[in-house]
Write a structure and sequence with these properties.
The complex is a heterodimer of chains A (about 300) and B (about 240). Chain A is of the alpha/beta class and about 300 residues long. Chain A contains 10 helices and 14 strands. Chain A is about 30% helix and about 30% strand. Helix content of chain B is about 35%, strand content about 25%. Chain B contains 9 helices and 10 strands.
């Protein structure tokens, strides 16, 4: 398991992490959800012993990231945010390289990467630099797994990846979880959060909240409505003058409007119709992680 | 034709050795339109954008962008377009003001115009107080808004945005799209790629590329009907899955 206790990190006057704490249980698939610049990569670099924290400590399966850095490096599999493979080596050469560095062979731990590697096999003699984004990501994951780590640390593995490859990647993580692997994965995609056992939302070096995905969605403190109309932009403008509005944001071709608990469907309908907005659909909906994140970002942390 | 087309691509093709990255794609984009250019990784989007911006010549077929042929009139074309991506946008070791001066200079704006435009921009984005801050010290979300403003400083006919909001927080992402709407309303055509399917739904028209071809193209409503889906995420997964 991973135990993070009051970890902080400053770069000069910039506080990248402001004393955060959380625990990841053994076998858990844990998501760290937040935009770029929220401190995710700094935390990963501390957990992999590549950075020393300014304050606090992190312990992975009983090993301290500062004192026991040698053990930490053997035990974790790390996939950094920037593509970390050797572009001028082939698929098989990269894999052999990482296996050798950790004193093992591809053969010894092949069972761990079998499902993923089978998709790469047709390209095994292709240089890593010539692979598509989805394939590079599969190779990087294979390289992070080849020494049979106990803990997998994945820093934004799905950034820049299309929705289909992203879905496939999460399926791979779910399958790996069945082997008992503990995984901490970061992502800026709010909808990825729903696929984790638990998630921590992070912003500006601070944890906003921690819970299961349904737990987080359940914490939304307002009533939420989905409005589909002819024109989102106009609907948002009209809602600015709606007294019971707490916030309104576009979500694809619809608008999510949050209101007080007493607001009725008729109240909203009346306001929109009065202002000549043609409603295609209006219904109450449960909040998504993204709704909660924006609520928390807007400085309403104390309410939850 | 009453509506002006700012991109006319005909059978546009690019091969690398035996590999065909872009395979006979044809489409038009109208003035002031927000055109979403989606596709799986490796489908040929980047190669297509490189051709449309005059960086890479086509193997066969052609395109006219902002009135200029992509192979024969590259330099003229480049004056009439803007470009930004998540990876490359601003110089980190220059200040906000210096970056704007640099881009203004590149696009041939006069000194007076640069000063006027810098003032307008910092006013509109409410960034006056950080105009002398190094870009490296500015948060990503703000940076992307500044980069977009820099890319349209010379009021191009068309601006190409390559995953402009990747990794940006959800509120800033929406503010960024407001800037896109404003530019489009101002007559600037917006050609944008994204992996956020909710953003695809903000576009006037959407195309989806797979394996070098344009597999589908239309308005959101047309695509949802045609592929019997409730949102773009579903359409994308049906076509590229």
């Amino acid at each position: 398991m991973i135990k993070i206790e009051n970890i902080s990190k400053s770069y000069g006057s910039v506080k990248a992490l402001k004393g955060i704490s959380f625990e990841v249980q053994k076998g858990e698939l844990y998501g760290l959800i937040g935009p770029d610049g929220s401190g995710k990569t700094t935390l990963f670099r501390i957990l992999t012993s590549l950075l020393i924290p300014t304050g606090g400590k992190a312990v992975l399966n009983g090993f301290d990231t500062v004192k026991d850095y040698r053990s930490i490096r053997k035990m974790v599999g790390y996939m950094p945010e920037r593509f970390s493979l050797y572009m001028d080596l082939t698929v098989i050469e990269n894999l052999t390289f990482f296996a050798t560095v950790f004193n093992t062979t591809i053969h010894e731990n092949y069972h761990l990467i079998k499902d993923i590697y089978q998709m790469l096999e047709p390209f095994k003699n292709r240089r890593a630099g010539d692979l598509s984004g989805g394939m590079k990501q599969k190779l990087a994951l294979s390289c992070a797994l080849i020494h049979k780590p106990d803990i997998l640390l994945l820093d934004e593995p799905t950034t820049g990846v299309d929705p289909v490859s992203r879905r496939d990647f999460w399926e791979m993580l779910k399958n790996l979880q069945k082997t008992g692997l503990t995984t901490l994965v970061s992502t800026p995609f709010m909808d990825d959060a729903a696929l984790c056992d638990r998630v921590a939302l992070i912003q500006n070096g601070d944890i906003l909240t921690i819970d299961t995905p349904t737990g987080i969605a359940g914490k939304y403190p307002h009533k939420l409505w989905k409005i589909v109309s002819e024109n989102n932009y106009r609907t948002l403008k009209v809602l600015e003058s709606f007294n019971e509005r707490v916030s309104a944001f576009s979500f694809g071709n619809s608008v999510h409007l949050s209101t007080g608990m007493q607001t009725s469907k008729e109240d909203i309908q009346e306001h929109l119709l009065k202002n000549h907005v043609n409603i295609i659909n209006l219904e109450p909906i449960p909040a998504m992680i993204e709704d909660v994140f924006m609520e928390l970002m807007s400085g309403n942390k104390q309410q939850l | 034709m009453t509506e002006e087309n700012v991109i006319i691509a005909k059978e546009l093709t690019r091969t690398f050795g035996k590999f065909t990255a872009v395979n006979h794609i044809s489409f038009n984009v109208k003035r002031g339109e927000i055109f979403g250019f989606l596709g799986a990784n490796g489908a040929g989007k980047t190669t297509a954008i490189k051709m449309l911006t005059g960086i890479l010549s086509s193997s066969s077929g052609t395109a006219v962008v902002a009135g200029f042929d992509i192979n024969k009139q590259r330099n003229k074309l480049k004056e009439k377009i803007g470009y930004m991506s998540q990876k490359f946008s601003l110089y980190e070791d220059l200040t906000l003001k210096e970056n704007i001066r640099f881009y203004g200079g590149i696009y041939g704006l006069s000194k007076a115009e640069i000063i006027r435009k810098t003032g307008e921009m910092t006013e509109r984005l409410r960034l006056k107080e950080i105009e002398n801050t190094l870009i490296s010290e500015i948060p990503l979300g703000w940076k992307q808004k500044i980069a977009f403003s820099a890319a349209i400083l010379h009021h191009p006919k068309i601006v190409f945005l390559d995953e402009p909001t990747s990794g940006v927080d959800p509120i800033t992402r929406r503010q960024f799209w407001n800037l896109i709407y404003e530019a489009a309303a101002d007559g600037i055509t917006v050609f944008v790629t994204t992996h956020y399917m909710d953003e695809a739904e903000y576009c006037d028209r959407i195309s989806i590329m797979t394996e070098g071809h344009i597999k589908a193209m239309g308005t959101l409503r047309e695509l949802l009907t045609k592929y019997d889906s409730k949102n773009m995420d579903e359409v994308f997964k049906k076509l590229a899955g």
